Amino acid sequence: AAALYPARAQDRGVEGSATVECGVRADGRPEGCFVVDESPRGNGFGGAAVRLVSRFRMRPTTQSGEPVEGRRVRIPVRWNLPE
Length: 83
Known about the structure:
The protein has about 80 residues and is of the alpha+beta class. Helix content is about 20%, strand content about 35%. Strand 1 and strand 2 (about 30-40) form a beta hairpin. The chain is elongated and about 45 Å long.
C-alpha cells in the first residue's frame, strides 16, 4: 500500500482516511467503486483508496452460504505515512 500512498499527502507529511463503496461480482472482485468520504479532503486519499480496494478479492459466498454477487460493501482505509 505504500506505493499507493498519495504523493501530495506524503510530500506534506499528511495522514488521512477514506471510505470506499463497491459492488461485488460473483468472482469476488469489487466493481463500481466510489469514494463515500475522505479526510482531509484534497490530498488524494479517496482516489488512492479506490485504487487499493480494486486489488481486493471478497470470498465468493457469505458465511451463511449466500452468494455475495450484487451486494454492496463499504471499506474504510486508514493511510499512515510510510516509515
